[in-house]
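During the no-cost extension, the postdoctoral fellow (Dr. R.K.) reprocessed legacy sequence entries with the updated structure-token encoder. One reprocessed record is reproduced below for audit purposes.
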Amino acid sequence: MTYNLWQIRTAKGYSLRELEELSGVSKTTINNIENGKANPTIETLRLLAAALEVELFDLLKL
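Re-encoded structure tokens follow.
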């Protein structure tokens, strides 16, 4: 599965570090998700969606 995380993060102007601080998810994990090297848990996606102020569904690229 692929995710819209990079597109949403960059559109909102957040660096990896900023999103890490807002979400509590490590920048390494965020980077790995963005590059398809990690499969996030629902909880991780929930934290990222909340930090980015988007719906969880928005992070999923269908």
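The longest strand covers residues 2-3. The chain has one domain: 2-54. The remaining legacy entries will be reprocessed before the final report is submitted.
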